[in-house]
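[audit] Reproducing an earlier prediction to check determinism. Same input, same settings, fresh worker. If the tokens differ from the archived copy the diff job will pick it up downstream; this log only records the rerun itself.
[audit] input (153 residues):
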Amino acid sequence: MSKQYLTKERLEEFKAELDDLKNKRRNDVAQRLKQAKEYGDLSENSEYAEAREEQANVEMRIFELEDLLKSAVIIEKNGSGSDVVAVGSVVTIKKGDKTSTYAIVGKYEAKPEEGRISDESPLGKAFLGHKPGDKVPVTTPAGSATYEILKIE
């Protein structure tokens, strides 16, 4: 089971969602199923079919969240002076004349448009373990490029 890196806030969001699914949505669906059964013939009962489908979706999401929470690891800030890129690092890189800054996060935290890239993305994976001054070759779907790591926070 691979580690799933999450911020403390995101972990709490997932826990709250799981609690809601187990304690509210599951009961709501059970009530809908009970009511739908009272309508009679289940073979032509669309309310029953919809409730069964929703029940399957709720149970699948509960399973996904429980599995995720078992493998969750809280992202710790590395702090300034860290010498290698790790999950939780904020790294400043240079490609040609362009400088960019990215936070390396887990896949459930990634928002590239906000400068947060996953440790499993081509860029994130390539930067892990490197130090300032390293030139890192990266192959992405858009092609190959070399990035220089300028700073790690």
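[audit] rerun output stored. Observation attached for the diff report: Residues 112 and 118 are 8 Å apart (CA to CA).
[audit] end
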